[in-house]
Write a structure and sequence with these properties.
The protein is α+β, with helices and mostly antiparallel strands. It has 7 helices and 19 strands. This is Sporulation protein YqfD.
Length: 300
């Protein structure tokens, strides 16, 4: 294996192998010797020993030709011949180092990424912003400040290249459900069933009610006093729905499609259905009437 700093040498003569023996006796080590013709060899020697090779073989019957530098020696010679080249290389290395140490972009990830503006404010207060140099102590200070934000349970600040990635996770604990003080009818219908465990019933089974009407009030009366409470009750309403659906022609597939669309729009559990069809122009219109059961509850 040739050394990194070496020169390629060509030796010509009647017996070039004798020249190698003379160099070996003088302590000159040769590398990658190859015979290119009967009277010519090519080999490598250390660049620093090149002058010794010429001195040892000077005045002999051998011709010695320096074919040029090889490997790192060639690169070094090129840099010395062109100082602007190595100065530019040094400047490029300095720019790459500065780019690696600087923060050029900040990315915010995690469940708290929706509040990225606040996260960036915390980073800026810790001395971290785009086009600034990053230090580990600033990153740790920012992480501590992020953990102090309301609802934040995890925070990390990691730098890779020129990108700073900030991960902030909020608590996944769901908020406490809002308790209904009263049970209210979401749509018009007839009360089919009503069970009250706490509160006061304001309607009876079989009574028709309108949308928004209170079914069970969040209060109870004791003596002449009224006390507020949260209703605990369940109810089922029988609600009516009507809809018309136009199709290009009358068919069983059109009938099933009209029924499916009506059931989807009506919601609830189907109890009864009535479908009629009439011709309209070149098409057909299906009229669907449904009765559905809507189940309600409060506090259960």
């Amino acid at each position: 294996m040739r050394p990194p700093f070496c020169c390629e040498v060509e030796i010509g003569g009647v017996m070039p192998l004798s020249a190698l023996e003379r160099l070996a006796r003088a302590g000159i080590r040769t590398y990658c010797v190859r015979k290119v013709s009967v009277c010519r060899l090519k080999l490598y020697v250390r660049a620093k020993e090149m002058q010794k090779v010429f001195a040892i073989l000077r005045g002999s019957c051998y011709t010695v030709t320096n074919k040029g530098s090889v490997g790192c020696k060639r690169l070094a010679d090129a840099l010395l011949a062109r100082p602007g080249l190595w100065i530019g290389a040094l400047l490029l290395a300095a720019a790459l180092w500065a780019g690696g140490a600087a923060v050029l972009r900040i990315e915010v990830e995690g469940s708290a990424a929706w509040n990225a503006a606040r996260v960036r404010e915390v980073l800026q207060e810790a001395g971290i912003a785009p086009f600034t140099f990053y230090r580990e102590e600033e990153g740790e200070a920012a992480r501590t400040a992020l953990l102090a934000l309301p609802g934040v349970v995890f925070a990390s600040v990691e730098k890779s290249g020129c990108v700073l990635t900030v991960t902030v996770e909020e608590s996944a604990e769901p908020p406490a459900p809002v308790r209904k003080q009263s049970l209210v009818a979401p749509r018009a219908g007839v009360v089919e069933e009503l069970t009250v465990l706490r509160g006061t019933a304001e309607v009876c089974v079989g009574e028709a009610v309108s949308a928004g009407q209170t079914l069970v009030g969040g209060y109870f009366v004791q003596g002449e006093e009224r006390h507020e409470t949260f209703a605990i009750a369940r109810c089922s309403l029988l609600c009516s729905f009507q809809g018309e659906y136009a199709f290009a022609a009358e068919s069983e597939a059109a009938r099933e499609s009209a029924l499916a669309q009506a059931l989807l729009a009506a919601g609830g559990e189907p109890v009864a259905q009535e479908i009629s069809v009439r011709a309209e122009g070149e098409g057909a219109v299906y009229a669907v009437r449904l009765t559905v059961r809507v189940r309600l509850s409060a506090g259960l």
